[in-house]
Amino acid sequence: MNALTQFRRCLAAEVLKLQNTLALAVAFGVPFFLNLLVFIIFLSEGNKFIKPGTDPWIPYTKPIFSFWSGLVMILLIILQAALINSIEHKSNSWPKLYSMPVPRGMVYFSKLTAFLALNLLSALALFVFEGLFGLLLGLVMPFLGFQNFRFSYDLLALSFKIMLAGCFIMGFQFYLSYRSRSFVLPLAIGFCLMVTAGIINSWQYVYLMPFALPSLAYKAFTTGHDLSVFSYEVATSFGLLIIVSLAGFYEVRSRS
Amino acid sequence: MLRADTWGHWESVLDPRFWFNWTFQIAFAVFHHLFGKYAPKMNIIETNDLDFHYREHKALSNLNLAVPEKTIYGFLGPNGAGKSTTIRALLGLIPVGSDKVRLFGKDINRHRLEILRKTGSIIETPSSYEHLSGYKNLEIFQKILGLKKRRIEEVLEVVSLSADGGRKVNEYSLGMKQRLGIGYALISDPELLILDEPLNGLDPGGIREVRALLITLNREAGKTIFISSHVLSEVEKTCKVIGILNKGKLIFQGQIAELSLELNEILIIKTDNNVLAMEGIARLNFKSAVSEDKLEIRINSKEDVRLIVKNLVENNIAIEYLNSANNTLEDKFLTMISQSG
Questions:
Q1: Does the model's ipTM exceed the 0.90 cut?
Q2: pLDDT surpassing 60 at residue B1
Q3: Nearest to A217, CA basis, from A202, A207, A208
């Protein structure tokens, strides 16, 4: 049996464990809630934000992506990492998992992959809900002009770019929650780092703070500085994800 | 025993080697059938001077376990004796030295995955994902192990949970959770089951069910079962071989019958002068103690009764009451624990 088959089996088990969990619910619920809030604001005073004759999708999606990249997605990652690992902590099933005929690293990587996939789903959900709520706004308030402009797939690219720029946060928070039986401790650490990233947002060396990378990726995209998905922020975040995941893998392998 | 390829082509019947081979194989099969049960059993679990420290605390000290194949081995000990630590060491969950732990004749460090493929376990408490049904919980392990789906139904039937497989585990009683835990251990149809306190928290009915299940698995499926427990009476009823652990040290290991042989009978006597009677009995080198107004004397045979009664009569001590009681395994266990410090 090769490692890929083993990995596929472990991943299938991880997906099964997610059934009926809060982790799965928030993956879709949080993007929905953010879109719903912005929808309500635009429903009440959309004409304030959209100039007649201009593409309404840009002012409509701007607050969504802004909040998503700087606050909501990071909070979601922190929460989801804690939730997905609490499935094992709560049921005290680590010893059972480690006594299965599967390499320990496989347990770690399959769970991490399920977690990354959940975040990918959230990024996709954000894009889909943006489109749906935008179309609904177009139906309810035709004068805003949503129906006259194309819902660009660039928004999907931006959604994925922000998500990829958050890879390090995912790897880091996942490791913390995997290690700690406490639900609160990884949340507190993540929250402090997120607030720090927010405070130093306009500092010239902000790019050194990995928790600020999603926000920087969004800025680079909207200012036209870097329109590619695989930008500096994404590459840095991805590199850091690999480092933190390997560290987690070696730590888990040698852990008793 | 008989290999199909022995048939070969029909011309081979003319070859004397054909007949020799067949004769040998039939003779071996008959011999194995008749005398196989007397063949020495291999030890499925072996530990060699196993030590383990939790920082300064020595959890296991020179532990030498020997669990013969196809037996139910009871691993007894009070709480904190090191039973769960031993189980963790057996499953490769804590670091141990090379060749200190051998399962199926192989070192756990070098052959961990190969050993775990043949081993099912419950560690500390059976852990279930309570937000899922019993069926889904088993499906998780079925997926990890790459087994066929029908194995889930088979296991549910073995642990008598077929009717409740669709219910969420958080609706299960403790007994059902324990049985489901045994189900996880059984799903890969392992040769060896290592069960940490599988009878913990069960009511008498549940204990009887799990005990019957373990005995069936041992007798009918030939599984070797290693159970840790402090429920002494259950170990006595279920296991053939036991090991007693106290403060990380193995203070007894052997057939339960051997331990029973060591059990002393207790002679209970009430006399008109217990103090004088005790002095006389002490002179005969019997251990005695006063309980309420009766003397309890440890004896080894009926001859001892005769000696004691003769001594009392010779000293003009009137016997008002005389009875005997068997020392139970539990008494013996507690004595051994207290004697070992």
A1: no
A2: no
A3: A207
